[in-house]
Amino acid sequence: MNHIAAHDATPAIRPIGPTFGAEVAGMPIHGDVTPELLVQFVSALHRYRVLVVPQANVGPADLVAFSRRFGPLEIHSRFESTLPDHPEVFCVGNIGQASFSRGIEQWHADSSYRPVPSDASLFYGEIVPPEGGDTLFADATAAYRSLDSATKQRIDGLTAVHSLESLRQWGLRHNPDRKQEVDNRADSFPPVRHPLVRRHPVTGARSLFVCPAVISHIEGLPIGESTALIDALIAHIAQPRTVYVHRWSQGDLVMWDNRAVLHTASLFDHTRYRRLMYRTTIAGDAPGLSE
Ligand SMILES: [Fe+2]
Description:
Layout: E1 12-15, E2 22-25, H1 35-48, E3 50-53, H2 60-68, E4 90-93, E5 120-127, E6 135-138, H3 140-145, H4 149-155, E7 159-162, H5 164-174, E8 192-195, E9 197-199, E10 206-208, E11 215-218, H6 223-237, E12 243-246, E13 253-257, E14 262-265, E15 276-282
Parallel strand pairs: 2-3
Antiparallel strand pairs: 1-2, 3-13, 4-15, 5-13, 5-15, 6-12, 6-14, 7-8, 7-11, 9-10
């Protein structure tokens, strides 16, 4: 589709969450957004960490073209749930081949099991149930900032091992009817090491990089201590003062900075309602998100 960039008005930015999150009403979502507008959007993302574009009403081609403006896109490891014409779009929900889960993947940043995890993700509500299926965001940056100094000292410098196999085992425990082969990609995605406290390459802000279903253990700690530390950090992160719950309306687009926030989902009544979400995932070290 052709777009006349000159017609793109400057969108209005309105903070929505307790410590983070902003609504960017009127942001055009397509591949021909002007560089000036894109710079404004990226700086809002760095500042607010989660951006909501209400009524973006975008198709897969424009979603992919817009997402590509930030950098190369990941192709999801669960390839069977990507769109045939747009393999950059990962489908989540209970329609067709979309990735469906009866369990919640707990707090996480996307694709942390990759050596260079995703910088940012975009999530679009194509078909939204009237209730349930919320997306919850936690401000991992503000949560780190509010830790006491003894805890900061204890965790700065610790390394966590993230593993797709750990996530697969977790998924099998929560979805007894899931086929064993789903996510059975340990050969392509061996365990990787990431700092438990990550530093944002643009803002310099530190944040908690804690993904309980994906982390097998924290290096150098007995497993009991490792699990207890992860649980304690998650309890700290998941407090209402650092959580924003997005209740979806059809046509909403949400983009978040995986380097600064964590997210998780809520279940919906899949026996009554239909849900279809499109996700694109900006690969790590994205040129459009690094300044
Ligand atoms: Fe996710």
